[in-house]
Every structure is written in C-alpha cells, then in structure tokens.
C-alpha cells in the first residue's frame, strides 16, 4: 500500500520545501532494539527523515516516513525523532508538517513503540493551538497513526495510493475493500476526516505550500500578511450567490479561496480568504452547489445540520486559536428537521454557538438571505458577540416564516375570516414589515448596516481593518466545557 515506488521520503521533502533549504536532523539515529534478531538489521534513520527547511520564507519542521526501511514502521527511536522535531518547533514557534507512509507500529518493539506513540500524542496535544500541525498521507496511515493524523490541524490525502484507517476495511464485519474502501481518500473526505484531497502527491505538496503561506507561524507571531494588488473598492457581483463558496471567492483578494473539508457537510462552507492581504477564516451557509458553468448540481434546504455545525465549530476554534479573524455569511432558515438529526442537532448547534461566542478574534457577520429563529443566533449574530453585522437589502431576520407565525398568532381569527387566504397574506405582510424585515432588525441595532451585495467586499474590508487592534477581556477560567 506504499507509494514509495513513485516518490521517496527525501524526494517528498525536497518537493515540499524551497530549493536547497532542507537541513536534516538525526540522520545517524537508528534502532537500538535487539529482540527478534533486530541487532542484525540496520534501519537507516529508523525509518523517518526529520529536519527543517523553508517554504516561501517561512521556517517549517518536517518529518517524512521512509517505507523502504521496515515499511516506515514506528519504533522507539522513530517516534523519538519526531518528538524532537516537535520540541524544536515549539521553541521556535514554527509549523510541523508530517509526510506519512507508514506500516504502523513496529511489532518487534511493541512496548517501546507504544511508549513512543504515547509521547508523540502528548507532543501533538501540547502543540495544539500553539503551532499549526499539518499531516499529508501518501501511503498507509493505519491504527495509531490515523489518530496522530487527526490530532493535527489539517489532513491531506492523495486520491490514489493514500490509505487512512483505524481498522482496515477488510476486518470490518460485513465489509471488504471491493465493497466499500473505508480507508480511501474519497471516503475520508466525505466523512470529514480528510480536510483536503488532491489528485496526486505533487498537488498535495503544492497545496501544503499554499496553506503554510496563508497561516500564522504560531499563535503569537503572524507573518502571513501579503501585499494586496486587488482593487479595495471592487464591486462584488456574486456576493449573494446561493453557492457561498463562489460568494467568498468573489469577495476575496484576487478571488482567492481555499476551501476546507469541501466534500463534507456541503451545506456548510469553511475556508480561508484574503482581505487587503490578511488571512480571514470564513464560515457560510450554502443552499446550492453550482458548477463552473453556472449550473446547479445540488440543492440544500438552508438549515443547520449536525455535521455542518461540527464542521464550522472546529474551523472557528482553529481560527480563534491562531488569531485569524472570522467572517460568516448567514442564510439559515432553521435546524434540520428529521428523526436522525433530532438525536444530535442540539448538542452540535450548542457547539457552534459556543465556538462563535467564545472566539475573541474580530468577528463579522453578513446576513445574505434568511436568518430565522435560534439558528440565526447560532450563526455569529450580534447577540453572541459578533463585532459587526451587515445584511443585504432583501435579507429576512426573524423568528419564523411570516405565514406560519400568523397561523399561530391568529388561529381563531382565521377560522372566522370570510377569505382566509387574503387574511393570512395581509397579516403576513404586516408581520414581515414589523418583525422579519432587515430594516426592523437594523432599527433595533441588531444590524449595523444594510448594504447592497455589490458593496460587500469594501464594507468587509473596512470592517476588518477597523477591528485589527481588537482586544477583549473574558472571565478567568481554565477552559470551557462545551
């Protein structure tokens, strides 16, 4: 299952980093176990190449597993080398990138290998929210390695050759690879485990380079700013698109948009844009998937789902940890109503509400369509801490659909009305005007400005520029519990 035949461990490093920038650390380290005749087997570098280098001027630490050395299996010294890279990265405040091609734990060193794995998990936990952690899977990433990949912030997979699994597909009862390859990149992307799936190894490495250049190097220092050559006052003609991925690209500098978890919970869009050269994390509701030719390929009902909330909450938490401002585009008609969702949606919606409310970075919300009920509150409303809220002219903000509200409020009157339909329509228009219009919300201070979709870019850009020096004090606590 290894991809070593295509690209070696060291070649992957050289393709990832700037030319001639890689410096290897621990090249002479090898295994020290003598059990099961291991004393006669020299394992160069103990199956992993570790060191540091540069990506577009940014220092990064990298490890690349060598499947030609005992299958790249993780033994005691293998894990120790990776842990050392983490120690250095934490001291220097630089990202860690893992290039995984691993047969799993080294059986000849069972107890020591497990101890090494535990140490690695601890290092990743300590690094979480301090430095970005990126894992790319090129061959096998099974068992404990799959847990390690998921402890990182972003997981990349190649469409061909990448396998990520806790349990191999063929050991799952009633399953086998030909029936459903649960380790394949496509399956992991649809289930939300893989954040990015690219065509081949080269595309994966190029995407990692792009990601590194737009992320802060750690949670305190941010060198991710870039020069903006795009018109700051450019009009945006897709800002109100039902496909919010296209809206975000239209708003962003030079139409840059790097979508995260593209194939998971498609009704919720997450990713990174640029505004005046600064990286901004974006979360948006999506009601339609539109292809490059402008054709609608998939429709969504505009409700919040469990998977969508989980996807968005995880992304907002990452942005907050690394001081990346957050933009949300809200078009939420409520929560998904079905038996399956009812089991999980309350907890998931609470998690997203908490993520937005807990984040102290600059937060801006744009109501692009419907913003109804408590789903509206959850989507980064002013009530839970959004610093600035804009709304498009035709947006709706309120409790529920006007006609449904009227049917509840005027149940008796409707029964006695001569023309029930006319009565409901008249009262619905009145309810819309008084309680569900964007003007009513703005009049109460819940919306800071009503804007045209064409003016979205410049208004957002100015808002984030104004919020650049935001400081916010919160109650002292160890951490929340949601």
TrEMBL record:
One cellular component term from this protein's GO annotations in UniProt: acetyl-CoA carboxylase complex
Residue ranges annotated for the CoA carboxyltransferase N-terminal domain, each copy included: 1-227
Alphabetized InterPro entries for the sequence: AccD/PCCB, AcCoA_carboxyl_beta, ClpP/crotonase-like_dom_sf, COA_CT_C, COA_CT_N
The UniProt record lists the keyword Transferase: yes
PROSITE patterns reported for this sequence: COA_CT_CTER, COA_CT_NTER
Superkingdom, taxonomy of origin: Bacteria
Pfam (any one): Carboxyl_trans
Alphabetic keyword roster: Transferase
Keyword Transferase: yes
PANTHER family per the UniProt record, alphabetical: PROPIONYL-COA CARBOXYLASE BETA CHAIN, PROPIONYL-COA CARBOXYLASE BETA CHAIN, MITOCHONDRIAL
Protein's name according to its UniProt entry: Acetyl-CoA carboxylase, carboxyltransferase component
């Amino acid at each position: 299952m290894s991809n070593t035949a295509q690209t070696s461990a060291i070649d992957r490093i050289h393709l990832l980093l700037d030319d001639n920038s890689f410096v290897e650390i621990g090249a002479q380290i090898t295994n020290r176990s003598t059990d099961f005749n291991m004393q006669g087997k020299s394992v160069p570098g103990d199956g992993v190449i570790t060191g540091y280098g540069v990506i577009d001027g940014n220092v990064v630490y990298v490890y690349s597993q060598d499947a030609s050395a005992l299958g790249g299996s993780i033994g005691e010294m293998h894990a120790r080398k990776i842990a050392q890279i983490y120690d250095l990265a934490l001291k220097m405040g630089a990202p860690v990138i893992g290039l995984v091609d691993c047969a799993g734990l080294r059986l000849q060193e069972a107890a020591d290998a497990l101890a090494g794995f535990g140490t690695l998990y601890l290092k990743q936990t300590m690094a979480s929210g301090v430095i970005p952690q990126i894992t790319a899977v090129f061959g096998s990433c099974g068992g404990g390695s799959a847990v390690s990949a998921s402890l990182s912030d972003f997981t990349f997979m190649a469409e061909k050759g990448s396998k990520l699994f806790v349990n191999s597909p063929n050991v799952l009862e009633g399953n086998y690879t030909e029936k459903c390859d649960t380790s394949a990149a496509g399956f992991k992307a649809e289930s939300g485990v893989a954040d990015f799936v690219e065509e081949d190894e080269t595309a994966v490495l190029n995407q990692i380079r792009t990601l590194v250049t737009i992320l802060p190097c750690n949670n305190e220092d941010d060198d991710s700013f870039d020069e903006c050559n795009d018109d700051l006052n450019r009009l945006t003609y897709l800002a109100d698109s039902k496909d919010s991925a296209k809206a975000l690209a239209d708003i962003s500098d030079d139409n840059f948009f790097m979508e995260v978890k593209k194939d998971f919970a498609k009704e919720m869009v997450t990713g990174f844009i640029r505004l005046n050269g600064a990286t901004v994390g974006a979360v948006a509701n999506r009601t339609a998937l539109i292809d490059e030719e402008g054709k609608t390929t998939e429709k969504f009902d505009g409700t919040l789902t469990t998977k969508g909330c989980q996807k968005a909450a995880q992304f907002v938490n990452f942005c907050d940890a690394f001081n990346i401002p957050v933009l949300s585009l809200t078009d939420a008609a409520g929560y998904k109503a079905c038996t399956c969702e009812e089991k999980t949606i309350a907890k998931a919606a609470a998690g997203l509400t908490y993520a937005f409310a807990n984040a102290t970075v600059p937060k801006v919300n744009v109501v692009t369509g419907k913003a109804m009920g408590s789903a509206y509150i959850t989507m980064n409303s002013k009530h839970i801490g959004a610093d600035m809220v804009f709304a498009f002219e035709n947006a709706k903000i309120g409790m529920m659909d006007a006609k449904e509200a009227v049917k509840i409020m005027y149940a008796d009157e409707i029964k006695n009305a001569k023309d029930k339909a006319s009565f409901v329509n008249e009262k619905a228009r009145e309810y819309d005007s008084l309680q569900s219009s964007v003007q009513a919300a703005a009049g109460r201070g819940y919306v800071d400005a009503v804007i045209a979709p064409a003016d979205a870019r410049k208004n957002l850009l100015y808002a984030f520029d104004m919020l650049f020096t935001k400081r916010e004090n919160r109650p002292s606590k160890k951490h929340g519990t949601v």
